[in-house]
Amino acid sequence: MIDRKTAENAFYTYTSHYDPDNSMIRHKIAHTLRVADNCERISQSLCLETELVDLAWFIGLLHDIGRFEQVRRYQTFIDSVSVDHAEFGADLLFKENLIREFPIKDLTAELLSILETAIRLHNKLNLPEELDERTRLICNIIRDADKADIFRVIAELPFEERIGSSRNLFTEADEASDEVMECVREHRCVPRDIRKTRFEGHISHCCMAFEVVFEESRQIIREQGFLDHLLREYDDSGKPLWNEMERAQLGILRKEIEAAWKGDIL
């Protein structure tokens, strides 16, 4: 079993080396803890044995460990202009031996291998076909748990704070491209290299809902309401949040997500 208190203390010790006044750092710490909780809830809903529930929680705690050094070096969370944060984090843990700062004495070689693989793959568009059943299961748990909280992050954190120094990568446009909307209609995530505008980025984040695997993950997302918030076409006073074409595309996206989930988002 994972000594969770020791693991959390090691996490706080590591993150204490980064600027506490940087909102990107603060939000990433909060995100990490929520993802760990999501991992525990999802894995418990699947009636997994205790060692796998603990492992899923631990992966949630470590999944974004590379984000902190990414922010210090590059002032952005945009992997395409800095580093792949999942690969970077896994390298810090397993090639530079940061993992030794965490309580791993009770983890078998198999569980350590699953931990490393799940961290490396948690942000990838697709999982490799050759993964064994247990590794794929744990990878899907962390990927779902992460997506569930990313909806919160997108809804709560201003665009400029989320992307830091990479603002100039996104242009303004009146609507998403046909290529992006094809992903919507095919119920799949939007590849990073085809999203060019802020609105396409918004659409692509919402499209993560198509790839949520477990019903418990969908229930977490429903309870939180952040995906529903991101798909709003009007604010609480009835004022349009987007132009007419963008609102129409958001309407299409909502219907496609509801079709994929076989029911309302809420």
Task: Provide a descriptive summary of the structure in words.
There is one protein chain. This protein folds into two domains: 1-157, Hypothetical protein af1432 (Orthogonal Bundle); 170-266, no CATH class. It has helices at 4-15, 23-45, 50-62, 65-74, 85-94, 109-121, 133-156, 159-163, 178-185, 198-206, 215-224, 226-230, 244-261. The protein contains 13 helices and no strands. α3 (50-62) packs across α6, α6 crosses α7 and α7 runs parallel beside α11 (215-224). The mean pLDDT is 92. By secondary structure, the chain is mostly helical. The longest helix is centred in the middle third of the chain and has 24 residues, at 133-156.
Gross geometry? globular
Order of helices and strands: HHHHHHHHHHHHH
What would the average pLDDT be, to the nearest integer? 92
The radius of gyration over CA amounts to 19 Å
Strand content: under 5%
Beginning-to-end CA distance, first to last residue: 36 Å
CATH superfamily of the largest domain: Hypothetical protein af1432
Number of helices: 13
The CATH topology annotation of the largest domain reads as Hypothetical protein af1432
Kindly give the count of domains: 2
Biggest sheet statistics: none
Highest-level CATH class of the largest domain: Mainly Alpha
Quick one: how many beta strands? 0
Residues in helix, %: 55-70%
Structural class: mainly alpha
Q: What is the gist of this entry?
A:
With 266 residues, this protein is mainly α.
